[in-house]
Write a structure and sequence with these properties.
This protein is mainly α. The chain has a single domain, classed as lambda repressor-like DNA-binding domains (434 Repressor (Amino-terminal Domain), Orthogonal Bundle), CATH 1.10.260. The chain is built from six helices and no strands. Helix 1 runs antiparallel to helix 5 and helix 2 packs across helix 3. The longest helix is centred in the first third of the chain and has 17 residues. The radius of gyration is 15 Å and the shape is globular. The model has no long low-confidence stretch (mean pLDDT 86). Pfam families: HTH_3.
């Protein structure tokens, strides 16, 4: 599995989530309550130990009163394309592509 949680784009996205939570003056526990998840889930996201998918990104944005596209733009702006393509090449080495 590709290690996208270590990319510059993901790190910037996580920092934007943390900054958004701080701007609202809420705790990880408060955010977890808004999301309907455990505080540990929020802690793992904020520490970069857990990936988030697109649907979770939308939920996080709404819980933080942010626009999902704003968060996506932060990740895109900070993403290093070589990191992105490197993640795909690593996964390609682990599996045979049926398109080949």
């Amino acid at each position: 599995m590709a290690n996208t949680i270590r990319t510059s784009g993901f790190k910037a996205l996580v920092q934007a989530l943390v900054d958004g939570r701080h701007a609202l003056g809420i705790t990880q526990r408060d955010l977890a309550a808004r999301l309907g998840c455990l505080p540990a889930t929020v802690a793992n996201i904020e520490s970069g130990q857990r990936r988030i998918d697109v649907i979770e990104l939308i939920a996080l944005a709404r819980a933080l009163n942010m626009a999902p596209d704003e968060l996506f733009q932060i990740a895109m702006r900070e993403a290093d394309e070589s990191e992105l393509f490197n993640n795909f090449s690593r996964s390609r080495h682990k599996a045979t592509d049926p398109a080949d």
